[in-house]
Amino acid sequence: MLRHLKVLHLASFSGNIGDNANHAGARAQFAQNLSFQLNFTELEIREFYWKQRFFDDDFISYANQFDLLLIGGGNYFELWVESSRTGCSIDLPPELLAKIRCPVLFYGLGVDAGQGVPDICLQRFRAFMDCILADDRFFVAVRNDGAVDTLEKYLGEYYSRAVSAVPDGGFFVTPAAHSLPELENSPRNIVINLAGDMLDTRFKGGQNFLSAEGFFKEFAGCLEQLLTANHDLNLVFVPHIFRDYAPISSVIEFLPDNLRRRRVAVAPYLVGTVGGDRQFSLYQQASLVLAMRFHANVCPLGMGVPTLGLVCYPQISHLYRELNLSALAVDVTAAGFSATLFDQSQLALSGQHVDGHVITAALLSNIKATHKKIDAWLLRQF
Asked: 121-151, pLDDT tens digit by residue?
């Protein structure tokens, strides 16, 4: 009989549906691979961003009521949070970590240098990592988005070797069947995700590089070409957060009126577990996915759907490199990207794409290996 563990799960559960897919897939794998049954109590990390909660003694007291504190998955080892005592979103300095009595699993965390690495953040993050790597009460598993390489680049080989790497849970999400009116007008659909946050970071402009407006215009031109070449094809735009509606609207503005009125649909803005499941069922039924956001790439790849990454942030190119699929990651910040994107899209739509089942098999092997380490660690704790 499996031992039950009360788990405080600190992560994001509302606001970005990619997080919901990540948790659903990871929990399914935990259930298959661990010698324990995990019973989760969810704690929304955005409450800390909103200053409704704080990493303080009250948080420690609450965490100590559980058998295990699980932090992640998510992009919480960012290296630019100067207001944090650890240089990242997990603001638990050594003096607070010392008060936590239960084991802590840092799971599936991104190590992100995409918005810079101030010296003070790097200094604090190193001290934080030194603390958690020196104590067997803590287990650290970073996700497969270049996190290990980023650790080695900024902290050194000792740190990159001391952590485990784990595939993001989104690779293993299995959406339920849903009624999807967005797909009713065509047997073939390109499902598209465009990220509406950090546009100044994603599209810096300058010589030979596109501004956000330049991307919108060129991307719309590529979509027009694809629709003209494939008369049975429609477009479905899927927002993951509310800001994604801005780039969706901007691209649609550049499409010819006859196409945007007849061959374009936009999915509703939904949040939470049920909303996320509904949106990812759209990805599951796509003929092709074109995606900017991390989980808009991860989830369809895991489901075996032909997917092309729209690279305007380093995390996405790192993801495809780790999967040995760099040819499927198209840099959309450089002027003229649409020629490559059109050619790659046509190949995928004609059935010439990587077999997703091969990807999933390799990732399953990887996650089982890491979960075996986590299981051994948990058995030492209990």
From this structure: 999 999 999 999 999 999 999 999 999 999 9
Residue 244 per-residue DSSP state: G
pLDDT at res. 357: 67
- Say yes or no: 262 and 321 in one domain: yes
Distance (Å, whole) CA 14 – CA 350: 37
Q: Per the structure, how many domains does the chain have?
A: 2
What's the pLDDT band for 75 if we cut at 50, 70, 90?
very high
CA nearest to 354, candidates 330, 323, 331: 323
Ranges of beta strands (E only) in 123-266 are: 138-143, 164-166, 188-193, 233-237, 264-266
Same domain, 120 and 225: no
Q: What is the average pLDDT value for the chain, to the nearest integer? A: 95
Q: What is the DSSP letter of 177?
A: P
Q: Looking at the domain assignment, is residue 176 inside a domain?
A: no
DSSP classification of residue 334 = B
Mean pLDDT of 311-330: 94
Place of tokens 């039950």: 4
DSSP 150-170: HHHHHT-HHHHHHSEEE--GG
Phi–psi pair at 332, nearest 5 degrees: -100, 15
For residues 122 and 87, is the Cβ–Cβ distance under 8 A?
yes
Q: Model confidence over 193-233: pLDDT tens digits?
A: 999 999 999 998 888 889 999 999 999 999 999 999 999 99
For the question of whether the overall pTM of this predicted structure is more than 0.70, the answer is yes
Domain limits at 95?
Answer: 3-170+361-381
φ, ψ (nearest 5 deg) of residue 106? -90, 110
Q: Are 249 and 316 in the same domain? A: yes
For 56, phi and psi rounded to 5 degrees?
-145, -170
Q: Which of 300, 19, 27 is nearest to 175 (CA)?
A: 300
Question: Within this chain, do residues 278 and 375 fall inside the same structural domain, yes or no?
Answer: no
Q: Are residues 166 and 206 in the same domain?
A: no
| 82 domain-assigned | yes
Q: Are 93 and 226 contained in the same domain?
A: no
Task: For residues 45 and 90, give the distance between their C-alpha atoms in angstroms, rounded to a whole number.
Answer: 9
Count other C-beta atoms under 10 Å from residue 289's C-beta. 28
- State whether 166 and 193 are in the same domain: no
